[in-house]
């Protein structure tokens, strides 16, 4: 709990009415679902020791994603976390994720056509073939870590193909992307900042080199077209070009790697549901959707309140940082029957699942992620139907932004 003058005076920290609790990162990391469940029943919004406040209920999260009084954070978050300049800071200063209004539209629009559902659907046969080839690679081994050998590689190969990056670079750019995404986790300490900064710098240098190569030798690929369009329109700065590509690499790899691992693990933990999907492949999209609901790989979206916002009598003051907790919303008993039960046959999933956010910032890679997850699961069902867990269920660490996962040991 807080409420001291010193704390409430910090930027982004609301001054709460008496009794509203402030959650610590430690308790949320230890048991995110349990902690949110306890408080969601009593309060629509509670304090968060780093993020200002957390909105807990499904209806409020959905509404505030589209509420003009609630905006992207621009550079507020890195400034609050002691990162006021540098190349890590640049990702917030020049990226679409943290931008608002016309600036956001300008940064996002070069990608909207390429990532539109219809265009992305054309990649399905290639993603299916890649997933099957990966399964055939590890199938002869007795036991494998499915994350390293499979679920990380499907999105990494796909984003490499879309952006025209060499497959040999996958270990490099994925390592840097996973490292940089930790900046959003709330668990890094001031002493971690130099390492995060070095990773952000290396990832941006990697993209700059790729762009220089494309300028020197254009090809028939996304990167060449993006570069030509961005330069012809002249409305993206050189830094913006680099940072949008960095955000694509981060968004396109880490999120789906974690989701792919978790959906396999959840189905293996519920063998009757694994068997149902194996017998009836038409259940694959529902299995993907329910896995994303039950253990989302992205736990929240960060925002700032431009005006005071009243949620059932609790007022979030203007200027507060707000965490819209999709993790909490997706287990809200008011929105989902038996919310803590994993059930691929549930009928109450909304068409626009909050896992991919909402409003202007709704995930640009949603269609791609769904295809990768569906095809990844389909290839497992067809080629490794007897797959089983050989170790414990993987633990998803983190309660905000991109969550982190350990190994997933399986045998075919
Ligand atoms: C299971 C996989 C994924 C999940 C759960 C996910 C989730 C999200 C969420 C919740 C947001 C909104 C964040 C906010 O409002 O602050 C978002 C935005 C974004 N995502 Fe994803 N994502 C996934 C896959 C992908 C993929 C495959 C890509 C790229 C190909 C991608 C690229 C992006 C980008 C660039 C944004 C920023 C959009 C904007 O600000 O306009 N994501 N994602």
Automatic annotation (TrEMBL):
<keyword id="KW-0479">Metal-binding</keyword>
<keyword id="KW-0503">Monooxygenase</keyword>
<dbReference type="InterPro" id="IPR002397">
    <property type="entry name" value="Cyt_P450_B"/>
</dbReference>
<dbReference type="Pfam" id="PF00067">
    <property type="entry name" value="p450"/>
</dbReference>
<keyword id="KW-0560">Oxidoreductase</keyword>
<protein>
    <recommendedName>
        <fullName>Cytochrome P450</fullName>
    </recommendedName>
</protein>
<keyword id="KW-0408">Iron</keyword>
<dbReference type="GO" id="GO:0004497">
    <property type="term" value="F:monooxygenase activity"/>
</dbReference>
<keyword id="KW-0349">Heme</keyword>
<dbReference type="GO" id="GO:0016705">
    <property type="term" value="F:oxidoreductase activity, acting on paired donors, with incorporation or reduction of molecular oxygen"/>
</dbReference>
<feature type="region of interest" description="Disordered">
    <location>
        <begin position="1"/>
        <end position="20"/>
    </location>
</feature>
<dbReference type="InterPro" id="IPR001128">
    <property type="entry name" value="Cyt_P450"/>
</dbReference>
<dbReference type="GO" id="GO:0020037">
    <property type="term" value="F:heme binding"/>
</dbReference>
<dbReference type="InterPro" id="IPR036396">
    <property type="entry name" value="Cyt_P450_sf"/>
</dbReference>
<dbReference type="InterPro" id="IPR017972">
    <property type="entry name" value="Cyt_P450_CS"/>
</dbReference>
<dbReference type="GO" id="GO:0005506">
    <property type="term" value="F:iron ion binding"/>
</dbReference>
<comment type="similarity">
    <text>Belongs to the cytochrome P450 family.</text>
</comment>
């Amino acid at each position: 709990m807080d409420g001291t003058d010193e704390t409430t005076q910090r930027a982004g920290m609301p001054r709460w009415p008496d009794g509203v609790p402030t959650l610590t990162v430690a308790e949320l990391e230890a048991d995110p679902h349990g902690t949110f469940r306890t408080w969601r029943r009593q309060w629509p919004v509670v304090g968060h020791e780093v993020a200002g406040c957390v909105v807990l209920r499904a209806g409020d999260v959905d509404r505030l994603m589209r509420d003009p009084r609630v905006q992207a954070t621009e550079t507020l978050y890195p400034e609050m976390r002691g990162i006021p300049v540098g190349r890590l800071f640049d990702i917030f200063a020049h990226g679409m994720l943290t931008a608002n209004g016309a600036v956001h539209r300008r940064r996002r629009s070069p990608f909207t056509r390429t990532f539109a559902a219809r265009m992305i659907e054309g990649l399905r046969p290639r993603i299916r073939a890649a997933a099957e080839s990966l399964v055939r690679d590890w199938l002869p081994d007795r036991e494998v870590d499915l994350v390293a050998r499979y679920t990380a590689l499907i999105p990494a190969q796909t984003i490499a193909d879309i952006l025209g990056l060499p497959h040999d670079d996958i270990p490099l750019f994925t390592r840097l992307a996973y490292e940089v995404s930790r900046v959003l986790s709330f668990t890094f300490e001031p002493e971690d900042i130099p390492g995060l900064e070095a990773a952000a710098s290396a990832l941006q240098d990697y993209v700059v080199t790729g762009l220089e190569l494309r300028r020197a030798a254009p090809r028939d690929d996304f990167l060449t077209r993006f570069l030509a369009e961005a330069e012809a329109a002249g409305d993206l700065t050189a830094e913006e070009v680099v940072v949008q590509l960095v955000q694509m690499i981060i968004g396109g790899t880490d999120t789906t790697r974690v989701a792919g691992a978790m959906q396999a693990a959840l189905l293996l933990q519920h063998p009757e549901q694994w068997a149902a999907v194996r017998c009836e492949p038409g259940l694959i999209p529902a299995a993907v959707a329910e896995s994303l609901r039950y253990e989302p790989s992205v736990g929240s979206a960060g925002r700032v309140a431009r005006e005071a916002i009243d949620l059932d009598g609790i007022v979030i003051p203007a200027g507060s940082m707000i965490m819209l907790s999709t993790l909490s919303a997706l287990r809200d008993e008011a929105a989902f029957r038996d919310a803590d039960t994993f059930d691929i046959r549930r009928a109450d999933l909304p068409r626009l699942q909050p896992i991919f956010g909402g409003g202007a910032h709704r995930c640009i890679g949603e269609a791609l992620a769904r295809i990768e997850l569906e095809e990844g699961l389909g290839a497992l069902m067809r080629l490794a139907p007897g797959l089983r867990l050989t170790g414990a269920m993987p633990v998803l660490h983190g309660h905000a932004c991109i969550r982190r996962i350990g190994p997933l040991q399986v045998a075919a």
